[in-house]
């Protein structure tokens, strides 16, 4: 699970609720069904006009990725690829074919299958580059939808406020109705700002970060696959792949290597 996303969501809600109570407000004062209808309904309708229905529906599934982290780390992927490289150096490229069936990552599996099938390196590189580009295109579409909603919800909140002000002007002859009507009019702007700046725009940003990380890892895998096909030295391959790691990941990898060396020495 992505702890940062979960903490941000929970603490953000807490900050809003606490701020309302500190200001001697009541939660029910911030609830208005017509305001919800015009802000959320209008924003979603504008999004549907701008994007295809299937893309808008798929974005709700995409949103779940914000709260999940990849099960396999870059260090584990490098370790697995180096082991495959060592095996192919000893036993040949065909020796890794039985292991492909157990691989969960379809990108690694398909790329290495092309290697086993004897496809030329240029063709394999083109396949992997195209796969990465298609993935980026899919991810950018989801980011664009959230960015669109981040821009459109405040606008619909303002539209709701204008409607509320029109209704307010119709009740100017009753001073007792002015305060409550003004409050309801401003609630729609509140909804639009919260949905855009607390949900949609941060989600678009997190999706871009995760997409960039996935692209970076796939580029690392592509480099490894071509090196395995070329029969490159596994030690050289390992050093080459570690260039793709962040400083924190390199420290974790170095710590793991030191622990393994200590265990081997003590044994």
Q: How would you characterize the overall build of this protein?
A:
- With 267 residues, this protein is mainly alpha-helical.
- It has one domain.
- 81% of the residues lie in helices and 0% in strands.
- It contains ten helices and no strands.
- 21% of the residues are buried.
Describe the structure concisely.
The chain is mainly alpha-helical and 267 residues long. 81% of the residues lie in helices and 0% in strands. It has one domain.
Label the structural class. Answer: mainly alpha
Share in β-strands: under 5%
Q: How far is the N terminus from the C terminus?
A: 36 Å
Work out the radius of gyration.
Answer: 27 Å
Shape: elongated
Q: Count structural domains.
A: 1
Uncertain runs with pLDDT below 50, 5 residues or more? none
Question: How would you spell out the order of helices and strands?
Answer: HHHHHHHHHH
Which features does this protein show?
mainly alpha, single chain
List the helices and strands and how they pair.
Blueprint: H1 3-22, H2 33-50, H3 53-63, H4 74-91, H5 97-100, H6 106-116, H7 121-169, H8 175-230, H9 234-242, H10 247-266
């Amino acid at each position: 699970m992505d702890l940062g996303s979960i903490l941000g969501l929970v603490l953000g809600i807490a900050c809003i609720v606490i701020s309302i109570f500190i200001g001697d407000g009541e939660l029910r004062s911030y609830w208005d069904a017509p305001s919800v209808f015009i802000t959320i309904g209008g924003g979603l309708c504008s999004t549907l006009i701008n994007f295809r229905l299937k893309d808008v529906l798929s974005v709700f599934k995409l949103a779940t990725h914000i709260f999940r982290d990849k099960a396999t780390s870059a260090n584990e992927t490098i370790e697995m690829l180096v082991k495959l490289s060592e095996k192919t150096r000893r036993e040949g490229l065909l020796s890794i074919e039985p292991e492909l069936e157990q691989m969960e990552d379809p990108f690694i599996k398909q790329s290495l299958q092309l290697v086993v099938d004897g496809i030329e390196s240029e063709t394999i590189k083109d396949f992997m580059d195209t796969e990465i580009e298609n993935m980026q295109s899919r991810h950018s579409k989801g980011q664009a939808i959230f960015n669109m909603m981040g821009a459109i919800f405040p606008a619909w909140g303002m539209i709701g406020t204008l409607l509320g002000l029109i209704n307010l002007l119709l009740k100017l002859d009753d001073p007792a109705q002015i305060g409550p009507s003004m409050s309801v009019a401003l609630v729609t702007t509140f909804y639009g700002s919260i949905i855009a700046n607390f949900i949609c725009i941060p989600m678009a940003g997190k999706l871009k970060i995760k997409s960039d990380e996935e692209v970076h890892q796939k580029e690392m895998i592509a480099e490894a696959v071509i090196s395995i096909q070329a029969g490159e030295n596994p030690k050289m391959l390992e050093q080459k792949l570690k260039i793709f790691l962040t400083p924190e990941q390199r420290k974790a990898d170095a710590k793991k290597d030191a622990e393994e060396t200590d265990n081997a020495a003590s044994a």
